[in-house]
Design goal:
Elements (H helix, E strand, L loop, with lengths): L1 H14 L1 H12 L4 H9 L5 H11 L5 H13 L13 H36 L2 H16 L2 H15 L15 H35 L2 H8 L4 H38 L5 H10 L3 H29 L5
């Protein structure tokens, strides 16, 4: 019961983000209606056209009234309509959500699996591998994902022609080209995460393998394989999962850049296009979608940490 109560409190705390983040986003974008109208109609729009535009969309009303109207619709699942084409926000973003999820989930799988494997090898194979990891980790943190994306395109798409330089293929159309189109974007987004997860795994593994209980297991005749993979890796799992969650949330912002470089029709590329067009309802809808993703990831991290770490239980 205590475990369920702790998880329930964390879920409630995470759900607060669903109110706080969209509210802040709405208030920040609550600029003068004339600025929004000029962004849609053009800088040479006449005052009469601007006034008619603001009245038609309700932008001439006070900010708090507009916010409460949007919040009432959002609670019922209505995120409003686009200023530019009149389509519902859900209709615009629904197909793009799958594209962004395929990118960031793919990056999550890559930097978690590869990072853990490298971290374990670094902890068990001596100082050379560990020092190499330290150097690569520094490079991974220092190299921006947009620069890495350009380099990957230049080498593997332009020179070697192994992968497409841009574009996206839906899984239902061709599974092969779906995975082929995601290789370079996923690598560009996951590279920094690989080094961070590997370093955290290595440090936690070394700490666990040098602990008193590990020495006791060795004295009782336990194999090194059992100590490393059955006990040390499990003890290192909880802090590594926390780091994985943090990197995953950070990758949401990185996905905006990566999607635009590789011309992927996801939420990130749409957010930039909508921001340039001053299409505020779409920007607001993207903020809600990203917030939901963050809430789900935070809850999943809390559940996994509770299961893996007896101290939390």
């Amino acid at each position: 019961m205590k475990l369920l109560a702790n998880l329930a409190s964390r879920i409630v705390g995470s759900l607060v983000l669903l109110i706080v983040v969209p509210t802040i986003t709405y208030l920040v974008q609550g600029v003068a209606p004339a600025n929004v109208a000029k962004g849609i109609l053009g800088l040479d729009a006449t005052p009469e056209r601007i006034a008619e535009f603001n009245q038609r969309l309700g932008l001439d009303q006070p900010l708090i009234v507009r916010y409460l109207r949007w919040l009432g619709g959002a609670v019922t699942g209505d995120l409003g309509s686009s200023y530019t084409n009149g389509q519902s926000v859900q209709h615009i973003l629904a197909p793009r959500l799958g594209v962004s999820l395929s990118l960031i989930v793919g990056a999550l799988v890559v930097f978690t699996v590869v990072g853990v494997v490298i971290g374990v090898l670094s902890a068990t194979q001596g100082r050379i591998v560990g020092r190499t990891l330290d150097v690569v980790s520094t490079v991974g943190i220092a190299v921006p994902n947009f620069w890495l994306a350009v380099i990957l395109v230049a080498i593997f798409a332009v020179e070697l022609r192994l992968f497409p330089a841009s574009g996206y293929t839906f899984f239902s159309d061709s599974p092969y080209f779906f995975f082929l189109a995601l290789v370079l974007p996923v690598v560009a987004l996951a590279f920094a995460g690989i080094t961070a997860v590997a370093k955290q795994t290595r440090d936690q593994m070394l700490l666990a393998m040098q602990s008193p209980w590990a020495r006791t297991l060795r004295a009782n005749g336990a194999s090194e394989f059992s100590i490393v993979y059955k006990h040390a890796l499990r003890n290192a799992a909880a802090p590594v999962i926390t780091v994985v969650g943090t990197i995953f949330v950070g990758s949401l912002s990185g996905s905006v850049v990566v999607e635009n470089i590789f011309v992927l029709p996801g939420l990130g590329s749409q957010s930039l296009a909508s921001a340039l067009q001053a299409d505020l309802p779409v920007v607001q809808g993207i903020a809600v979608y990203f917030t939901i993703i963050v809430v789900v990831v935070n809850v999943a991290i809390d559940v996994a940490s509770t299961i893996l770490n007896p101290k939390v239980r």
